[in-house]
# Entry
Amino acid sequence: MLDQRVTLSPISPTPVQPMDRLGAALGLAPERLWVKRDDLTGLAGGGNKVRKLEFLCADALAQGCDTLVTGGGEQSNHARLTAAAAARLGLACTIVLASDPVDPPTGNVVLDHLLGPDIVWAGAIDYYPLEEAMRAEADRLAATGRRPYLIPVGGASTIGELGYVAAALELREQIADIGLVVTADGSGGTHAGLVAGLGSHDLVLGVDAGTRPDLDHVVPRKAIQAAALAGLPEPTGTCGVDHDRFGDGYGAPTASCREALDLAARLEGLLLDPVYTGKALAGLIAAVREDRVPDGTLVFLHSGGLPALFEPKYATWAAERP
# Structure
């Protein structure tokens, strides 16, 4: 099953790099802290969703579908990359965004317009109403004779999660003594795939970005399903999710996120985003400072998301030096 994908990323495997200057600032020994550069996956600005889309698009093509349908927040990286994958493969695409229309477009929305999907503005709705709006759009397209392929928010289906099962196996070949992988948790699919591929919940910490309200229940279920589809044993251990980093809600700026962005940029030349990766690194920093990390190598998964920095509220926030 792990071979049933299309190639959307020219960079494979994505590199791992030591972050010794940041590690030293946190009191870690040299080569203890590394970053997995899944922001460099190469399609339309890169990001972790490319891995999932390689499997999802292969399934869509196998079913004879002609239109990809998905959705996300206004600044959705997943929506951008789904539109790019559709363009690459000659498919139509509809993205449903949980926002009112924005004028002028900023950040990811600029790239959405360039990539050319049909954009449906669904208003300020939450996770599960958004998925209902996406299903309604797929049903509408089917009624007109199209053959839509519905992709959940974040690509968080069992087929999509195979992308991070494969990434976990890739990471095992790059780093032998993984102690903990830290990732942002939006829909939970990346987290679940990593757990399935590594074989244990104890090796992965997800940092809740405020997207999905039921990660503690969803991630273990999805990890079991992804492992079964990949032909791997059921994961062991206890699901780990840090729910203390998203502040007032999804996309809300926080002081700990700003500190993480500054440390990554000024010590490692590494640019993070304020919605996902900044908060994920803030979770890793807190775990190190509070002595909640196991022995072994710590790996920060950089899942992309840079375009969000160019949304006005974040641009102004970034320009204000603490």
Observations:
- The chain has two domains: 16-46+156-319, 49-155.
